[in-house]
TrEMBL record:
Pathway: Amino-acid biosynthesis; L-histidine biosynthesis; L-histidine from 5-phospho-alpha-D-ribose 1-diphosphate: step 4/9. The lineage of its organism: Archaea, Methanobacteriati, Methanobacteriota, Stenosarchaea group, Methanomicrobia. Signal peptide: none annotated. This is 1-(5-phosphoribosyl)-5-[(5-phosphoribosylamino)methylideneamino] imidazole-4-carboxamide isomerase. One of its GO terms (biological process) is L-histidine biosynthetic process. The gene is hisA. Its main location: cytoplasm. CDD domains: HisA. It comes from Methanolobus vulcani.
Amino acid sequence: MSFEVIPAVDMRNGKCVQLVQGVPGSEMVSIDDPVAVAKDWVSQGAKTLHLIDLDGAIDGKRKNAPIIENIVKECKPLGMKIQVGGGIRSFENAAELLNIGVDRVILSTAAINNPQLVKELADEFGSEHINVALDSKNGKVAIDGWKKESEFTAVEMGIKFEELGAGSILFTNIDTEGLLQGVNTAPTEDLVKSVNIPVIASGGVTKLEDLIALKNTGAKAVVVGSALYTGKFTLPEAINIINEDL
């Protein structure tokens, strides 16, 4: 895959939101119709959509599943790839999403708590459909909607999950996530150097130059949320600068 800018559609209580460092109640953006938001990103040139059920991630209940299904129905026929995370706690949760046409499921807490789940899903559906999210806070992987820190580093977990069959890793630097203060590329670069599967970067993107910096780490894509929703730059501008940097 060539480097790609992927817009985020994060959902909480049926709305498209952007939280500061994943903290409930810190919404800097709240939009009533996530389906319309997703279709708008498609019209602006997105090739992949990043859908997160924040209710699922934070509370373990996938309240926004019907909205995600609607986005898949509306956007897949337009050629979109769709990756979904948030509250995927079981084989059945993941299978349900893959069976409705989701291209990649993103496992986080479930993967850390039950690494064998990654292998089971990869064996059944193929590695390319299984992504593991490694969300790093103070150098350690965070779980349970970022409320708890594990004892593992992202590099340790990245190596482990590659061996178990994950086809890609979503790496979020929580220390910079949602603050709109720029990226810290070092942790992403460390992870990229440690694994052979694609790493998708996330967290802290504020200006167009941040996209180039993350591309230069060797990451294969970047998920962007707050910077797009608050008008720091547009998706077409982001796509253009990446293409110019080829």
